[in-house]
Amino acid sequence: MATVVNARxxxxxxxxxxxxxxxxxxxxxxxxxxxxxxxxxxxxxxxxMVLLVRHFREAIPFQxxxxxxxxxxxxxxxxxxxxxxxxxxxxxxxxxxxxTTGLTETRGEDLEGDxxxxxxxxxxxxxxxxxxxSTPDFAGALExxxxxxxxxxxxxxxxxxxxxxxxxxxxxxxSHLTPGDIEEIRGMVEAFGLEPIILPDLxxxxxxxxxxxxxxxxxxxxxxxxxxxxxxxxxxxxxxAQMRTAAEILEAKAGVPFTVLDRLTGLSAVDGFVxxxxxxxxxxxxxxxxxxxxxxxxxxxxxxxxFGKTKVALAAEPDLLLALSCFLTELGAEVVAAVAxxxxxVLAKVPTDVVTIGDxxxxxxxxxxxxAALLMTHSHGRMVAERLGLPFFRVGFPVFDRLGAAHxxxxxxxxxxxxxxxxxxxxxEHAHEAEPGDWALDDEPVTQGGCHAxxxxx
Length: 458
Prior knowledge:
It is built from 18 helices and 14 strands. With 458 residues, the protein is of the alpha/beta class.
């Protein structure tokens, strides 16, 4: 059990966390024919769009209610109403995802009342889903905003039904999953003959494909019709603790039972996912997955010499931090520094002594004090790596100084295997910089807490 400590500094130095509105908008990006709308100033929207464009390297549909000094004082109803009308008229969108910002939250906008009034005054918007989410950027972080947006979509769109579809299941995907991860999960679920409805589905909208024609909204992802039908599924699998709230709302609203999986990275974690799919489908694991599992076992045997005794510093959103730290520990590495963006119940499960709620400055100080040999965080950690002269592996959001961030896979048997190779090659490349005793190359194979223990159990 890790001890969670809040840095409680007067200011952030090189911030780690991204804002709630950005997380909410990202979740709406995974819905087909959607337009994320930030209810605030133009600057808030522009900053978020820059991060999304740099990370995904795609055209990002994004709109703002463009609040100014006058509307901030008098109220933003007219701006919100006009924005919804213009978006619907110009794009023909199916859903508008409205995320608040610090500006409107501080003023205290009555958004639910505003939307009811807009509905009465604008019958043309009857065919458009207007989903509003409270995402003040002065609290929480990206993961929190994402969680709230998914919970709002489930709560406001899903319909109850007495009928169920025997092979249909829901997958609630956390913000720590890339489009590549989601595609891997979809393939694993479909291998058992199941039909997944994935929400949000970034693999459908931000996987890097080129559309045949220009579309003013998101193109691809979960359709509104799919969200409406989620109540007919036989089971919901929530990936990441951040998805628990949405799963609970879905169960309360439509009676769909759920299972929360903390992570899908690592042999034991993926085995648990496969067993769950076997129980739901009534089928055994297909040969392809059995082959991938065997390949992962071999990759663990090949890679544990380079991971054993390696001291790693991690900084990420809570669910990603837990997944990566458990994976590294299972390979024999030691997580000596762990920094999270926001508090979460899962942080107590991180296999290290202390988890700090802090920023990149806390990350750098902890990595230096505890002799880290590998750094893992998003692209804003590159300056820390340069100052410390340590190998640096980019994970999370944003990753803007490397290509292919959206296609990075860290889940499933295949994704875990790819992660072992990518990290292992980075460690091999920097092996000449390691201090004596940091490596297990000339020692006996690492077994305690490493891959041999996991392989032997199977």
